[in-house]
């Protein structure tokens, strides 16, 4: 159980609290540089392509820098020709054509290079994004179940869709821009410096100021970008929860409240997003101001220089373009810094999941269970939350072929025993052995390949009934499949469906009743044909007549297997070889139905309460 | 998309302000080259240093003004875009809240989630880009063309040679890109659905060792998603270089023509024109570059248009759903004198896609303050009966009278207010236990809350929690056992004073003892109509009326004793459960 101090938490506050409550993950804002490092380390193995892109960018930038220089030259050449004409001569077109062709070639070259850069980079970035999404998906497989208990589903979803999409949208241009901007800046600066050190010095004057202002602004925008993506996760969380619980929201007339909460989170998202955009929008004009100031300084100064005869008109044109060129990468870089921040804020959230603690180590890979017959629990201790011990010193031995029923009041820890046997959670003391092998010494895969289970909560995916049943064992034969379907009694309702086995199940199962869904999950488990079968309230929504038929159908299947059944209904447990009566995390009685009834203890009390009305 | 842009109407002020400031800042950047040409032509030609300084000063002032203008633009554009996103998201959320379960399934929850967040964000970014850049492109274009024409009409004609070519290229690229984005957003839905299923089905996926196969399925979508994005980026990587080459080609042509033009001037008669020609040409080149660059920029920015269009379509699809369950135009209030009476009159119901009707000609009355129980085989339509009372669906035939009024003739809010519904699968929301209980009645008193916990047999475990009712329930109650969730979901319904309580097989996760105690407590404390759907005969044995359903039809109705005599289906159900107790 987690803390909740004030009685009513709504909207963003509630979700913020959710985050605070997740005890195994502290979502502290990390160093953004570190995140950037992690992000770009995904490009590992593609260094060659990165270098190639950088070379293309460098050559391309040189061409981009040379281009305006020739454009400037052409004004000079024209000036010479016009002066010649003014002096009574004729204009010579050869030098003009020469320069024009050179310009065309330069731009053809730089365009080709730009194309190549983007082409390669697109591949690199998509590779990185695919990798990131893949990693996140694989991570979800490795996270312990407790992680999912303490994290909002919608928020995790938002990370894999919205956040990764954001990184995707920003990274493509960002990476190329960084390379190009840096190369261009250095290139132009060198050329300018060669042309006129004085003018260069003057035109650079406004930059430090612009940079400093940018740094300050970046700090603000960083904060709001982080907030923006975090709250996007909250909005996603709220929406997911409300849409999933739609029926309850409606039945309790809670639309208004749901909307109020939504409004609150939505407002918080709006504010964060507004501020992030506002601050990031300030960078460009400020840097542009520096840009324009440089432009003016050059104009005024070059005017002086030309009058003094120290510079040509062409030189001014060159300088003006260079001033534009040298400021462009800087203003680009500051714009990128913003984009980058937004994508790093998202990357941070993705890495937060990727860095979360995984399930403890697997056992030895090569140890396998030849069969799975005897199961022993030895002094097992377990609790979901440290301060609330649930299972204390639990001991149990189950022999091959046994049908073991676990009964007890709700919250007694029945499902927990299953969770531990399946190794969904790690025990904190004692050991669980199958045929003498500690389940921690084998891989989870190996363990689970011997176990099959049907859970209290039916889980079916969107797909046909056939696909859902084959899920248990995709390589099963047609005969085995039919056998499983009839043993689970699912065939009787499936045949009434117009599409039969090819009926597509809707996500919320609206086209099937809960009981029918349970029958499908039972068919799935029967098809899987495991050594140990666990039925956890598997037939709670199935009517008793059908349930009896299922038991009959499964009777043969149960031979030679070990079976666990958790149920409240007596019809289910009466035949059990052993009934475990649990209360508050430990076994209070064991025996067969007859023995326990005779004993007149906890079990008999539980059982008789049914007729006491 | 245009329809969605109408949302901007509600924020006319900030939209217009943002646009105004874009125009102003563009005006600034158009004036600067003019001043520049002035400096060269007049200042330098006449060696007029004060003039250069004066113009330089003006240029500085304009630049400074540009910063202020841009700041305002940034402010108003972010304000508009953020509010735009907010309104759109809100309307989507409101829409979904107004829909019935059936309507929601048409699009599916995962897709609805993507549409509410991802697609809205695409449009929000689109609005922002429009107000910052895209809108300035035509301004720059028109401004540049006008200025160029003023300076030299004949040379300006070259523009018309380049612009159509670029326009054509942009059009072709757009055509190719649109279907890519459509598919891409669909895949995003699919990825969302996939991960959501994975999050809810973790246990099953792991238990069946299906992680590898699931991951392979995911990988397929993941790769396709990326390859679509890749295709798009690669298409775009061709667009800009081609445009630039065209620009330079045009510029070359222009200079050739300009040079010929100058060459044709008579050095003596048109001496002044000849002297000014170089300064003019310089400014002209600047304008030309500006025009064509703005066009290229517009083309590059234009790529977000197809994406925005697809997202807009997806959003409109949701906004356009006609809710199948709607409130009547002139609602009637339930009849006070018939409080707590629910009557089914010849009700039939069928889902569109399944051939046989789920309910067929069902008629019964749930009497005031009596317990009516519904029992029957799996898939016999028990839950459907309940769903129809709460109007999660509407009957295909016949009518359901709630307190004397057809449920379709009253407001859903009035109907729901009078019902305490407990679903088959307990649904809890993240928040404290108390938050969840208050779902039933926002202003519930402490005592009532205690009573609800007491009746539902929840206090037994809630009191043991270190923080009692303040304890945190995680999403869908994953930190509680199945029975605990079910009891809290019962407590939630009991916090409200409903006329009718509906238990849709809500005892299935409870042990017999708790089940019995719970029913006893309800009997003692609650005076209201109770409708119970159940599997166990024990749960309903002393109900005032038991309705036996079989394949959507009523095959028996009456008290336990009566049914034991007259109804074979009931007898079968009874014997299948009770004989075990005889041992």
Walkthrough of the structure:
The complex is a heterodimer of chains A (613) and B (583). Chain A is an alpha/beta fold and 613 residues long. Chain A folds into three domains: 29-354, ABC transporter type 1, transmembrane domain (ABC transporter transmembrane region fold); 363-450 and 532-552 and 562-613, Rossmann fold (3-Layer(aba) Sandwich), CATH 3.40.50.300; 459-529, Rossmann fold (3-Layer(aba) Sandwich). Helices cover 63% and strands 10% of the residues of chain A. Chain A has 21 helices and twelve strands. Chain A has helices at residues 11-21, 32-40, 47-86, 94-142, 145-149, 153-195, 197-204, 207-244, 246-251, 255-307, 313-354, 414-421, 444-449, 465-470, 478-487, 491-494, 514-528, 544-558, 570-573, 593-599, 602-608, and strands spanning 375-382, 391-398, 403-407, 429-434, 437-438, 451-454, 463-464, 504-505, 532-536, 562-566, 578-583, 586-591. A six-stranded mixed sheet of chain A has the order 6-9-10-3-11-12, sandwiched between helices. In chain A, a hairpin with an 8-residue loop joins strand 1 (375-382) and strand 2 (391-398). Residues 1-12 and 17-27 of chain A have low confidence and may be disordered. With 583 residues, chain B is α/β, with parallel strands linked by helices. Chain B has a domain at 2-319: ABC transporter type 1, transmembrane domain (ABC transporter transmembrane region fold), CATH 1.20.1560. In chain B, helix 3 (49-98) packs antiparallel against helix 5. Chain B is elongated. At the A-B interface, helix 1, helix 3, helix 4, helix 5 and helix 6 of A face helix 2, helix 3, helix 4, helix 5 and helix 8 of B.
